[in-house]
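Let us work through a complete example step by step.
Step 1: write down the sequence.
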Amino acid sequence: MLPVQQLGAGDHAFVSYGCDHAARDIVTTFAWMGLAQQEKVVIFAPPQLKEEEVWARIDVPGPLVADARRRGQLAVSSMRTLIHPQDRFTAARQWQRIEEETDQALDEGYRGLRTYIDMHWVPDLSADVDVMMHRETHADHLFADRPYTEICAYDTRWFAPDVLEAMHHAHPVSLLSHTGALHTESSPHGLRLVGEADVATREQFNAALRKTLAGKAQAGQVSVDMSRLVFLSAACAEDLVQLSCDASSPEHVRVLCRPQQAHLLRRVGAEHLSHLVLSEVSC
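Step 2: predict the structure and record it as tokens.
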């Protein structure tokens, strides 16, 4: 599980959405991250959207998107266009074209290619869902040692639950459904946090910490992995320090965090707690 901001070259990601706002949130962030990293970005939008509607979703005031659009660094396309002149979808044809597009992006001087593929192309091309699923489960070669990143976005209002479940498990990476979300995941050793810990998710953040620290108190040591947080507020950092001092807390709390998070935690008192160990990692 990753936030969209942490996707990198070689990632093949699944995301689902049940409202158009969530889809807009992910595709906009994905595109902007690609531009910032000097990658070429192609958006395969829902076929029912007009091209200008797609541009309106990812554009914000300022010259960056307009310049990237003019240069061809950011483009809107369709699966029909990608597989042309074929009019019937085959995995082999799509794989061939993606490899060609990746090579072209490198030839043009970009660091790689990233694509956002809305899976509404399946009904648009009258493609067999089983053919689509075969493509998804046999596409590893597109990402092996290649600077290619892909999001496959599934509308939960159209795809059957069993298909969504199968595709969720088939992709090496699953994305949080929207930016600003916090995902908490318990493990035998402690807690893993993914996304954003801020004023909107502070209650969820604290509830997960309390449950983990209390449940692992008898174990003597617990691990809190914060390395997949893209934002940690000062208030949430203070909460972590305070909760680790409670009587029910384990004797040792090991926090896996990125350097910026470690700096913040030290600023709010972690450096004065001998039982709170900060282990810096890079992601």
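Step 3: interpret the result. The CA atoms of residues 195 and 229 lie 5 Å apart.
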